[in-house]
Design a protein that fits this description.
Length: 457
Amino acid sequence: MPSARSGLLRANLTVTSGTALSRVTGLIRIIIFGIVIGQTALADAYDIANNAPNVVYELLLGGILTATLVPLFTRYLHDGDDESINAITSFAFVALAVITTIAIALAPLIFKIFSLNPADTIDADLFGQAGTVLTRLLLLQIFFYGVTSICTSILHARKQFFAAAWSPVLANLVTITSLLFVSRVSSVDPPTLEEIVENSSLHWLLGMGSTSGIIVMALALVFALRRSGTSLKFKFNRTHDAVRQLLKLSGWAVAYIAANQVTLVVIKNLATPGSGNVDAYSKAYTFFSLPHGLLAVSIATTFVPELARAVAQNNRHEFDRRFFSGLRLTAIATIPASIILVLFAKPIVAQLLQYGNFDASATTNTARALTGLAVGLSGFSIYLFVLRGFYSHGDTRTPFFINLFENALNVVFAIALVKKYDVLGLGLAFSFAYLISSVIAFIALRRKIMNLPPIIS
């Protein structure tokens, strides 16, 4: 038992340290972006375009990979079933290639969906042109996000956490480097929507700067996977039992992601793209994600394989022990962080972002969004941890319905609060929805566990 605990502690430290550096470099990335671009219509266009590959990937394949791969790979590695692992990865690679190609062709439509309600102060057609140019380049990331997910899942199933935790640092460094060259290719400061459309050097630099970072991250994980002794072979067989199991488990996960993306479309449009509010909400979410990533994600990353292993071994006692330990750690870590962000949102944003083209009004706007989001930090982190308990049992159906309820709450609260409180209202809507849903998710999981047949302890 002591050796197991020390191993889990080492894994947590590995993930936490890597996540810390990746979050810090990610923060530096948005600081540099704010200095170079400011909180402008171009910043909103870039945010929507940069979010597009995440949306498409999560909607069409990310739910499948994220929700089911670690438990499946843990089981197959335990059984020594390399054939099933190869079948799943081969299917995923083909699906990624097809989805990426189709997404790039549909780039104008994808950007349009997230900018249905542009600000009155901008040229909507120009905003759409600039956004589409960037979206096409950034959608290339879909394939490499998928490669990253596959490699990460196998490494986590093997209890190897270093590469997956540290590789995002490379992506951030590549993007930061590209942003430092924007002033050299742009003829105006800050760059405008017009220049993105007319200056090919600028839009290639902004688009491929971020995409190149994701490519480097994926290649680093492929290298780490090979070093771990895993040798993947391409054996495409969509009728393989492992692929069928993957798709069976993933149907509800895809619906889960779809609900999230519909809500995201609503929130982005309520923020009136082109006004700078989309950028404010996005930057606030980055600050919000920092303690979540450092604390809650690090805990969940190392606990999920253990939860899946306890289920595979039919050991309810061990599952409960691990689950409640992770839940307590998540609450203890995130509640103080939530209080700090609520109390000091504006000075934090001012000290870190208010430079160059990021002015005082942008600071106030971003801080308001951060205050709203920070209220729900602990609820958000606990909610996601509890859902991993369902996934460990191979249950993706229940999380879908809980998540559908959470998204409905988010939209209702957002519509009710945005007119009076703008981005603060959007942040509070997010928080209220997750605080309520975290309680519901916990109650649902405990009922599920208690209703299971007797399990060996």
